[in-house]
Each structure stands twice: as structure tokens, then as C-alpha cells.
Automatic annotation (TrEMBL):
InterPro entries per the UniProt record, alphabetical: Znf_RING (IPR001841), Znf_RING/FYVE/PHD (IPR013083), Znf_RING_CS (IPR017907), Znf_TRAF (IPR001293)
Coiled coil: 192-243
Organism: Merops nubicus
GO biological process: regulation of canonical NF-kappaB signal transduction
GO molecular function: zinc ion binding
Protein name (database record): E3 ubiquitin-protein ligase NRDP1
SUPFAM superfamilies assigned: RING/U-box, TRAF domain-like
Domain RING-type: 18-56
Protein origin, superkingdom: Eukaryota
Keyword Lyase in record: no
């Protein structure tokens, strides 16, 4: 939808009106046939139709282009009233700067910033409303440090609130202790499994070394037996030599 033509000061050229909503162009786009439309209007129209609403020529969304520069300049120079005119704002400014003004306008209706409050107030009256809002929060004057809403003043009990806070802290501490305990147990289990695995590997290595040592001892005994046999043979040969 475009800008309400009733908001504008003076004459508005027909070429600056949307061919669909007949209001002043907002975020304008132009078709190849040079008819201009508000962006929202033409996209909505082409979602149901496939042609220009003025001359029925076929239009594809990809063919839409920004407004000619001179038309854009004419559009931006138009003067119009702030949308908050009915609330008392008397500002008249160019279409080019109206959005910036309305974002900061003191007469704009804005929501109360207090959680739970649904009141809409003028920006200029927000501070006064916050001072008396039933949903405003403040710290307990009795020193318990609890933040309370004005609507809860009659129900606030420092001892009860502190007891609740203590219970919450105790529950949180128990949860943290349990989490730390589970984490420590998990780490110990992991280390235990690692040690068992390491012990098994070492045991296997020991058994392998024992097996190797047994083979070496067997080889040594065989060598010693062979040496004794060889020595006996030498001694026998020496005796035979002497007899000869």
C-alpha cells in the first residue's frame, strides 16, 4: 500500500500515484510499459495475475525496475504531514525524510518497556508512564535485595523470598556437586579402564619376554652340550694321537 494522498500538501502529479492502490507510491517499481506501482501492490497483484493492471500487457517480476531518477526526485520532494498528526504532531517534511522523522517523532505510539505491560503511550509521555506503571520493578526497600513489581508490594515477604532463594541456591549446589561427582567418576572409570588395558599389554609383553628368555636358555644349553661333546671328541682324538 502507498502513502495516503490526504497526507500530502498541495498537488500530487498523477504519474506519482500507484496504478493499483491509487495512493502515492511507496517503494516504487516500474514495469516495461512505464506504469508505476508500490512494491507491495505489484507483487501482490502479480501473485494473482500475470499482466499490468492498466493495459493488461504481460509482466514478469524479473522485468520490474526502479522508478526513473527524475520521477524519484519528484516523489522525494513531495511534502506531507507526519502520520501522528491526529495525536498532535504538526511536522510537515519531504517524503525522503518522513521515515526518519516518524521513527523519532515524540507523538509516536510506542509500547511500555516493562515486561507484562500492554499499554501504548506517546514517546514523549513514556518516562512519566514508567514512573507510575504497575509493572515497574524496583529493589525491596527492606534490604533483602529482591526485585519486586509494584503490583506485588502487598504480597512480598522478605523472609519467604530469602528462604526460596536459599532453597534454589541449595538445589543448584546439589546439582553442581552431583555433576562434579559424575564427572569425577567418569574420569576415574576411564583411567581405570586405561590402566587395566595397559596392565594387560604389559603382561603380554612380560609373557613374550619370558618365552624369548626360555628359548635363549634352551639355545644356551644346546650350545653348552655341543661344546662338551666337541671337547670330548677333542680329548678322544688327543688320546688316539698319543697312542699312535
Amino acid at each position: 500500500m502507498g502513502y495516503d494522498i490526504e497526507r500530502f500538501v498541495g498537488y500530487v502529479n498523477e504519474g506519482l500515484l500507484c496504478s493499483i492502490c491509487r495512493d502515492v507510491l511507496e517503494e516504487p517499481l516500474q514495469a516495461p510499459c512505464e506504469h508505476a506501482f508500490c512494491s507491495a501492490c505489484i507483487h501482490g497483484w502479480l501473485g494473482r495475475h500475470g499482466s499490468c493492471p492498466e493495459d493488461r500487457q504481460g509482466i514478469d517480476v524479473s522485468l520490474l525496475r526502479p522508478l526513473y531518477r527524475y520521477m524519484k526526485n519528484d516523489l522525494n520532494r513531495l511534502q506531507l504531514h507526519c502520520k501522528n498528526r491526529e495525536y498532535g504532531c504538526e511536522m510537515v517534511c519531504s517524503l525522503e525524510s518522513i521515515d526518519r522523522h516518524e521513527r523519532e517523532c515524540e507523538y509516536s505510539q510506542i509500547p511500555c518497556s516493562n515486561t507484562g505491560c500492554t499499554v501504548q503511550v506517546e514517546r514523549r509521555n513514556l518516562e512519566g508512564h514508567l514512573a507510575v506503571c504497575e509493572y515497574r520493578s524496583r529493589e525491596c526497600p527492606n534490604g533483602c535485595g529482591y526485585t519486586i513489581l509494584s503490583a506485588e508490594d502487598t504480597q512480598h515477604n522478605c523472609v519467604a523470598e530469602l528462604r526460596t532463594e536459599l532453597e534454589l541456591l541449595r538445589s543448584e549446589m546439589i546439582c553442581r556437586v552431583e555433576e562434579a561427582k559424575h564427572e569425577m567418576e567418569s574420569r576415574l572409570d576411564s583411567q581405570r579402564r586405561h590402566m587395566v588395558q595397559k596392565e594387560s599389554i604389559l603382561q603380554n609383553e612380560i609373557e613374550e619376554l619370558k618365552s624369548q628368555l626360555s628359548r635363549v636358555m634352551s639355545d644356551v644349553r644346546s650350545l653348552m652340550a655341543a661344546e662338551r661333546q666337541h671337547r670330548q671328541e677333542l680329548e678322544q682324538a688327543e688320546l688316539e694321537k698319543r697312542e699312535l
